[in-house]
Every structure is written in C-alpha cells, then in structure tokens.
Design goal:
Number of helices: 21
CATH topology of the largest domain: Rossmann fold
Number of domains: 3
CATH architecture of the largest domain: 3-Layer(aba) Sandwich
Strand order of the largest sheet: 11-14-17-10-18
C-alpha cells in the first residue's frame, strides 16, 4: 500500500446482479477539498457530508478538519455508481489513508452500508446479491449493517459481519472486538391470508382451471360480469401453489432485495402482485433511469394478477408478450442491456363489455355491438394466444350463496394434487433448466407429450379450426398438465378435449 493511498472494496447493483467496485482514497497536499469521482450520482456525492459527520461523532478526526485534498475514486469509472451503500467503504478507506486505523488485509473484505450522522449504519438494498457476488469473487468477509445480516447470511462460504455502528467496524478491523460471523436464522412460514377454495360458492369450472394453472404454471383469463368473485378466485390461487424451493427462494429474494423491498432474510412465500391499471410501463415491465425490477419480475415464481385487463395501457399489454414467452425481460440502455427474471403465472380478469353484463342471464347489457367489439379488441390476438386457460365466470344464484352446509377446507387437498403434479414435472425435466409444463418449448412439448392413439385421432380433427401453431403447442402443454394431475403417463383425447375447451371463446 502506497503512502497516503488506500484501496478497499464495495459493490454496485446492476439490475439484480452486483458488480465489484474498488474504492480508492488518495490524500494530497493543498487546500481542503473532498471530491468523489468515478461517475457518481447525487446521493453518492452527498456521501462526503455523511462521512464527515459520522467520523466526527465517532470521535475520529474527520476530512473537513484536514488541510489536504482528498480524492475518492470509484473504479471502474465507466459504471454509473448510485445510492448510499459506499459510505462505509469511503470512511474505512479514509481511515486507512490517514493512518487513523491500523493496517489490515483489504483484499478479502467488502464493505457496504449507509452512515447516519451519528455513526450508525443504516441498511441498504441488495445485500443478498452482493453476498453472492462476494463469494463468487473469492472474498472472505462482507461487512454490512446488522439489519442486512440475516439476508446476506443465506449465502454460504462467506463470513457476514454485522455492524451497528462505524465504531464496531473499526474495533473489529483493529482486533479489539471479536469477529463473529452472522448465521442465517430461518423464519417460519407466515399465516396464509388467501381465501380457501371452500369459501368460494359455485364456480367449479373456475376452480378446476385454477388447479390446472397452478400445476403447470399456465396463464389464465377469467371473463365475467362484475362482482362474481374473479378477484377472490385469483387470490385463492396462492393457497394451492407449492412452497418455494430453496433455489426459487434465492431467485425471488434477489429480485426483492435489488428493488429495496426485502431486508429480513429469505422469502418463503410465492409472490402475488396486483398492480393498478394506472401503473406506468416502467412500473409493470421494469426499467427507469436506474433500472429496477418491475411488477412482472416481482411476481417471479409467483402470480401476477391484472384485474380489468382491457383498462391497462395497450403498450403495457403488448409489452407482456415477450416476457410471457421468454420468462425474462430485457431492459436496453445505451451502454448496456439488463435482464430481469420474469417467470410468472399471469392471472387476468375482465368484463365481457364496458358495462359488464354482455351475455348475462340476469341483467341486460346496454352496450352497442360496436362498443362490445371495441372493448374486447383491446386484448390482441397474440396476447390471447399466450393465455392457455380462458374461462367464463358466471353469476352465482342467490339461493346457492345462501345455502348453508358443512364445508371442509378444500385448498389443502387441491394443493397436494398440485404438488404431486409438480413432482412429476420435476422428474421429467430434471436434466433441463425448466420446472413446469408451461415453460416447455415446442420441441419439448412434442417430445414429452406422450399422446396415445385417441389423442392422435383427436388432433386430426383440429385441422379445420383457427388454432395457430403457438396455440397448438400450448394445447399440448395444457393437456400434459391435465394428465399429470391424474398421474397418467400418456395424454388421451379426454385430456386434449378439456385443454381445448379452455381455448374456445365466443365473445373474445
């Protein structure tokens, strides 16, 4: 280490992945100045004020008492640096450069954390992501705020050092305080607030479609008049989805951590996201000045519920097409392209017309034929082609709603059937990177379809239909899931017929 020059390490989030950043602190003779270079944003440039106050209030001589020029360089210089997570690294680098802390090995340590003016450390986003990068890069220690410790400790083979204050960091680095790596404390699964299937009166066809959607990860569209329980059905889907696997939990937690929505540890429940129709395209798809995950990525390995589907902006609906097919969204920028995972199950709901009562047996529709067609055409054919299950949700009669009978909980039993179907798929795809039938390519749909003679005969009758090639392969995937629910090795005409019934639509 050169005289009056120190180098420590920190990290920058780019999408959901962390990149290693070198924090170099150099002291020069001259009038006092404190400059941060290396493509830093405003929040990062304000770090010098936070570092000054934190050092002063920790009993250490701060930079503004030095009659020297202080330069902090963040390398590589072509990566834009954002946020306040560099505070701790800058403070430690300054202490090393000014010899106010004893020398220690810096090559195996990463420092992240925002400093309060009194020297406390505040949590930052992306602790899990940074811990994963640190392990891959061969670092041994990650110093961070105590609130982030449990999340980062999920990653093995990296010592996570939880800090309450800047003084804690100094004492540990100088050996005056024992370094005790944090251990991951797994939290129990929270209470499921989703409604049980038994609470939903009638709607047996919708419940069956939900079980198929949960089993194979298929997209679902519910069409029906207002107030018939479409939103309740969508919420009930969460109760029958299998628990997140450890790998899925890591994937989901990384996304939420990068978005600044998680600091407590590993996420255990599958996400359910229900954005409003007025949300912007950046909020739904992802992006922004500093690209962040959108709702479709926050719904990764879970459910994205779009209520009143035609009310969403057309450009948003069309932007969903690529992620639904690829399971990821590419956010392109001038200098780079960021990929956010987006393997979600789309559950959507809509009325059949603007007033909501077209085709309703109880209430007459007052929309003109033109208004009905115009409303339904808001959902394009290519988007509908990507939705495997399209069902009508009719009005339930008052007499059926008032009927009182002892009803046992249903969601638990359905969930077991869903889990069994998922295990069959897990075994089927053990050598592939996919997890559900909905993720199969057209080639894989043919390979794993296992059609029996009756199914082959049924398919020969579909030549006269308007089924597109994409629709054909999605039909095979849905039929494969229905067969898996019944634990059948081969797909029969009965399975194909049921799958095809979910693609028939009279109004849309």
């Amino acid at each position: 280490m050169l005289k009056n020059l120190a180098k420590v390490y920190s990290a920058e989030l780019e999408g959901i992945n962390a990149k290693l950043i070198e924090v170099e602190v150099d002291l020069n003779v001259g009038l006092h100045a404190f400059n941060i270079v290396g493509l830093a944003d405003k929040a990062l440039n304000e770090a010098k004020e936070r570092v000054n106050s934190a050092l002063k209030n920790s009993g250490i001589k701060p930079p503004n008492r030095e009659n020297r020029k202080i330069t902090v360089n963040l390398a590589p210089a072509d990566i834009k640096k954002t946020g306040s997570q560099y505070d701790l690294a800058i403070a430690v680098g300054y202490l090393l450069a000014t010899k106010q802390i004893g020398d220690f090995e810096t090559k195996d340590k990463i420092f992240i954390g925002e400093l309060a003016l009194d020297g406390r450390l505040r949590p930052v986003s992306g602790a899990l992501n940074i811990a994963e990068m640190a392990r891959e890069q061969g670092f041994k220690y990650l110093f961070l705020p105590s609130e982030n410790a449990n999340e980062a400790a999920v990653i093995k083979k990296i010592n996570v050092v939880a800090l309450g204050t800047l003084e804690d960091a100094i004492e540990i680095l100088e050996g005056r305080k024992t370094l005790m790596p944090a251990t991951f404390a797994d939290s129990p699964l929270g209470e499921n607030s989703a409604p049980d299937f038994s609470e939903i009166k009638g709607q047996e066809n919708a419940k069956r479609a939900l079980a198929i959607a949960a089993s194979g990860g298929h997209n679902l569209l519910m069409i029906g008049p207002p107030g018939v329980g479409k939103s309740m059905l969508a919420q009930a889907l969460v109760a029958i989805l299998p628990e997140l696997s450890f790998i899925e939990a890591i994937e989901t937690t990384k996304i939420y951590s990068a978005a600044g929505l998680n600091q407590s540890g590993l996420m255990k429940e599958r996400p359910f996201r229900a954005p409003h129709q007025t949300a912007s395209i950046a909020a739904i798809i992802g992006g922004g000045t500093q690209p962040k995950p959108g709702e479709i990525s926050l719904a990764h390995r879970g459910v994205l519920f779009l209520d009143e589907l035609p009310e969403f902006q057309k450009n948003i609906l069309e932007a969903l097409r690529q992620p639904l097919e690829a399971g990821a969204v590419h956010v392109a920028r001038a200098k780079s392209s960021i990929i956010f995972p987006a393997k979600f199950t789309l559950v959507s709901a809509m009325n059949p017309c603007p007033c909501g009562f077209y085709g309703d047996a109880e209430k007459e529709c007052d929309c003109s034929a033109y208004e009905v067609i115009k409303y339904q055409k808001k959902i394009s054919g290519p988007l509908l082609d990507r939705i495997d299950l399209q069902i009508k949700v009719p009005r339930v009669k008052i007499a059926e709603l008032r009927e009182k009978r002892a009803v046992e909980p249903m969601s638990g039993k359905i969930k077991k059937n869903v889990e069994n179907a998922r295990k069959i798929q897990e075994h089927r795809f053990k050598k592939l990177k996919i997890k559900t039938n909905a993720e199969m390519s057209s080639k894989q749909a043919e390979e794993f379809g296992a059609l029996d003679a009756s199914a082959e005969k049924f398919l020969s009758t579909l030549d006269k239909t308007r089924l597109s090639p994409r629709g054909y392969y999605r039909l095979l995937k849905t039929a494969r899931t229905i067969a898996d629910l019944e634990a059948r090795e081969s797909v029969s005409a009965e399975h194909l017929a049921e799958a095809y019934s979910y693609r028939l639509r009279e109004e849309i």
